[in-house]
Amino acid sequence: MEGPRLRELVVQALSSVEHGYDLLAPKFDATSFRTPDWLLAATITALREYGPFERGLDVCTGTGAGLEVLAETTAERPTGVDFSMGMLEQAREAHPEADLVRADARALPFEAAYDLVVSFGALGHFLPGERLALFAGIHRALRPGGTFALPAGQGPRPTHPAYWMLTGFDLAMRVRNAVWRPKFVMYYRTHPRPALLRDLTEVGFVVATTPMPGVGELIVARRNQLSPGAGSSQAAERR
């Protein structure tokens, strides 16, 4: 598959998030934005100590990379949710066995329906003030005792050129969104680990982590067996 040309990427970047991904969808899997197979494999391995799981949901599924994790870790037909119809069409071609739902991840239409929720590479599309709604919706979607698994890679240090490349990208995106509409929300440095653990705890998750050698760690947020819904406050733990 041939990846998108520069002009196509520019058009996408000047669009809204939803329309931009509709445009990019047919060539998305040929870009570096797709979740790499090594990260999917590491997540599958890390999840084995927390299973078995019956039913799974991939939030912001895109073309369906996370559905591959659910196929290996859950017993029932997996579900993927995304708000880009173009991305869902690609996911349907690649994963005809999955149930695919179009919805905004900040208002998930599920209630105590899943044992496992995963999400890959999506946090940059949510502003810090939107994370609580995202995590609260995931909490509601889980059955009591259910697990939300969120891979967290090792970010580059300030001494590494990649650190400044990501910082420069975020700065350029802030300038773009200040002068251009519609906004395209995609940032790399707006979801540091302490903020994620705090927000997950605030909506009612009990949070732990497990190492993924060579990758980083898997944040494992579990809905309390006795909790009737989101909103309780639990202390974050490190496994």
TrEMBL record:
One GO biological process term is: methylation
Write out the entry's keywords from A to Z: Methyltransferase, Transferase, Ubiquinone
Task: Establish whether keyword Transcription is in the entry.
Answer: no
| Superkingdom of this protein's organism | Bacteria
InterPro entries assigned: Methyltransf_25, SAM-dependent_MTases_sf
Which residue intervals define the domain Methyltransferase in the entry?
57-146
Q: Which GO terms describe its molecular function?
A: methyltransferase activity
Is Transferase found in the keyword set?
A: yes
Write down the SUPFAM superfamilies for this protein, in alphabetical order.
Answer: S-adenosyl-L-methionine-dependent methyltransferases
Q: Name one Pfam family in it.
A: Methyltransf_25
Name it.
Ubiquinone/menaquinone biosynthesis C-methylase UbiE
What is the source species? Nocardioides albus
The record lists the lineage as: Bacteria, Bacillati, Actinomycetota, Actinomycetes, Propionibacteriales
